[in-house]
Specification:
- By secondary structure, this protein is of the alpha/beta class.
- The chain is 47% helix and 12% strand.
- It has 13 helices and eleven strands.
- Strands 1, 4, 5, 6, 7, 10 and 11 form a seven-stranded mixed β-sheet that branches.
- β8, α13 and β9 form a beta-alpha-beta unit.
- The two termini are 32 Å apart.
- Bound molecules: zinc ion (ZN).
- The site of zinc ion has 5 residues, from loops.
């Protein structure tokens, strides 16, 4: 008999009634499409839990059900409580949720999220790119700003879902510009295009502690997504350990044992020193962003691939 050792792991971010939201331009999955995708999943796959996946790992003879699928949700959005949780709960499906601890505890909007909402509010990526370069020149006259065309050529890439200008903008604001400059630029654009009240926006955008507690009590799985949603592979081993430990302190509030937990890497970033820290801390599963089906016979359990929701029909 063939052994069933494959699992499709799907990742979701925003799941909301986009058309009727304040930011219809946000790149997310509509509630309607999510609901249809759940119908599709239940017709063709067998949803599994993290516990089932772990069991199969720990006993090599233990099969997964045919067409096993695990649903994961990144970044701790309140969407996940309001929209996702009721649908999963009603269908008896476990979701795995990975909230960035700092955003929830300190009511700070992640820079990556600020960039999403700036892009959604601005709409015209070219004009926004001009504005970014103008702000950079203003706050840091010594910094050698290149031309818009050059940045689009260098950073625009060949991305699957976004236009090249949008990709270049994201890369500039997420990584390319020196940290102090990009943080200041994002801060200024967020106040200009979205809101000056970051705390209120964070409370609306992310899960609350009570919501997470409620979801845990109903069998949803919560894992680490770091503390500050950093590119963990770009940090020193010491800084990696701090990120991991602070995210574990956060998870312990919800009864997650500190020697049996999971992680989802922000931006899919990990490296050998991080994996070593995770092994020592008792991390059981790690989720990345490589888009393919996971194979328990071949994959490392700390570097599991995940498909994007857009890779599945809905
Ligand atoms: Zn994330």
């Amino acid at each position: 008999m063939l052994t069933q050792r494959k699992a499709t792991i799907v990742m979701y971010h925003y799941v909301r009634d986009l058309v009727h939201s304040r930011y219809p331009g946000i790149k997310g999955l509509s509630l309607e499409r999510f609901s249809r995708q759940l119908d599709y999943i239940q017709a063709r796959y067998t949803p599994i839990t993290v516990e089932t996946l772990l069991e199969a790992w720990q006993s090599p003879g233990h099969n997964l059900p045919p067409n096993a699928i695990l649903l994961t949700f990144d970044d701790g959005y309140s969407d996940h409580f309001t929209n996702v949780f009721p649908l999963l709960d009603a269908r008896g499906i476990q979701g795995c949720f990975f909230p960035p601890a700092q955003a929830i505890l300190e009511h700070k909007v992640l820079d990556v999220n600020k960039i999403h909402f700036i892009l959604a509010a601005a709409r015209d990526a070219e004009k926004l790119l001009d504005r970014v370069l103008m702000i950079v020149r203003g706050i840091s006259p010594d910094f050698q700003v290149q031309s818009k065309t050059l940045y689009v050529e260098k950073l625009g890439g060949d991305h699957r879902y976004d236009r090249r200008e949008v990709v270049a903008l994201k890369r500039l604001l997420q990584r390319e510009l020196p940290e102090s400059i990009r943080r200041a630029v994002v801060q200024e654009l967020f106040a200009e295009y979205v809101t000056a009240d970051e705390t209120a926006f964070a409370c609306e955008l992310y899960l609350s502690l009570d919501q997470i507690g409620c979801m845990c009590r109903h069998g949803m799985h919560f894992g680490s997504h770091g503390y500050a949603h950093a590119w963990l592979n770009h940090l020193s081993p010491e800084a990696q350990a701090v990120e991991v430990d602070r995210s574990l302190d956060f998870l312990q509030r919800f009864g997650v044992p500190d020697d049996d937990w999971t992680i989802c890497y922000p931006y899919g970033g990990f490296n050998d020193s991080l994996l070593e820290i995770l092994r020592r801390r008792g991390c059981r599963l790690g989720f990345g962003v490589e888009a393919r089906v996971a194979d328990l016979s071949l994959d490392n359990r700390l570097t599991l691939p995940r498909m994007d929701t857009n890779d599945l029909p809905s």
